[in-house]
Amino acid sequence: MPRPPSSATLNELKAAAGTGSWFDTPEDMAPYLVDFRRLYRGATPLVLLPRTVDEVSRILAICHREEVAVVPCGGNTGYCGAATPDGSGTQIVLSMRRLNRVRLLDAPNYSMMIETGSTLAEAQAAARAADRLFPLSLGSEGTAQIGGNLSTNAGGTAVLRYGMMRDLVLGLEVVLADGRVMSGLKSLRKDNTGYDVKSLFIGAEGTLGVITAASLKLFPLPAATATALVGLDSPHAALGLLGRLRTAAGEQVSTFELMPRNAVELTVKHVAGVANPLSQGTGWYVLLELTSPNPKQDLATVLTDELQRAAADGMVRDAMIAASIAQSQAMWKLRESVPEAQRHHGASLKHDVSVPVSSVPRLIEEGAALVRRFAPEGEVLSYGHLGDGNLHFNVSQRPGSDTQVFLSRGKPLEKAIFDLVEDLGGSISAEHGIGRLKAEEFASRADPVELALMRDLKRALDPKGIMNPGKVLS
Question: Using one digit for the tens of pLDDT, what is the confidence trace for 322-336?
Answer without folding.
Answer: 999 999 999 999 999
